[in-house]
Design a protein that fits this description.
By secondary structure, the protein is α+β, with helices and mostly antiparallel strands. It is 17% helix and 40% strand. It contains 4 helices and 15 strands. It is globular and about 55 Å long.
Length: 213
């Protein structure tokens, strides 16, 4: 694995300056994390860069990084995945999280951004986090309020089936059916563990079990 540090990343990766135009008052945020966080970036050519200050704009689907001089840049070189390290901020612990797209660069135009919740050669559980917004302006007010809303959907990638993602329904039978001939075994496990398959934790546990078979 070819690994470089943050300074190497700034030299290798193409980017363009981010010019922030704030013509509204924000209610909520388009970002995964509001602050820049230390991350590991994997380019589509396979090179890995550690200790990069980065963040994701989920609404505009942009990957941003911070130069040593504080300038904010938008990554334009194709990026395969980004892994945010676990850290503690203001007494809150944030876990390690990895994001990628599906069969394309994470920052390709129109690409969906997925968080990897469970991954193996047999199956991958992905969570798509989408941010939309609505603009409003009160009667007689000159300022626009932009309200950001996050929504989540879960998808399965099972290579033995096809390269297409399958949207996950949060119920026992539909979840077990994703696993083809292994469905009866997975269904038995779900019942033994008394999983309701409604939560993210239950979905991840089922995928980890399937990958262990």
């Amino acid at each position: 694995m070819n690994v470089g540090g943050g300074n190497t990343f700034a030299n290798d990766i193409n980017g363009r300056p981010m010019y922030l135009k704030t013509e509204y008052v924000a209610d909520g945020s388009p970002y995964l994390y509001e602050d820049y966080c230390m991350a590991e970036i994997t380019a589509m050519n396979g090179k890995v860069y550690s200790n990069v200050k980065a963040k994701i704009n989920l609404q505009e689907k942009l990957l941003l990084y911070l130069l040593d001089n504080g300038e904010e840049m938008i990554m334009t070189s194709p990026i395969k995945k980004i892994k945010f390290y676990n850290y503690i901020s203001n007494g809150t612990a944030y876990p390690e999280r990895t994001f990628q797209s599906h069969l394309t660069a994470l920052n390709a135009e129109g690409a969906a951004i997925y968080e990897v919740l469970a991954e193996d050669s047999a199956a991958t559980l992905l969570k798509q986090i989408t941010v939309t917004y609505n603009d409003s302006k009160g009667y007689g007010e000159a300022t626009i309020t932009r309200t950001f809303k996050k929504s989540e959907q879960y998808f399965a990638a099972i290579p033995s089936r096809s390269k297409e993602l399958k949207k996950i329904e949060k119920n026992k039978s539909a979840l077990a059916a994703l696993f083809g001939s292994r469905a009866p075994v997975v269904s038995t496990y779900i019942e033994q563990k008394k999983l309701k398959c409604k939560s993210e934790e239950d979905l991840a546990e089922v995928f980890r079990y399937y990958c262990s078979l």
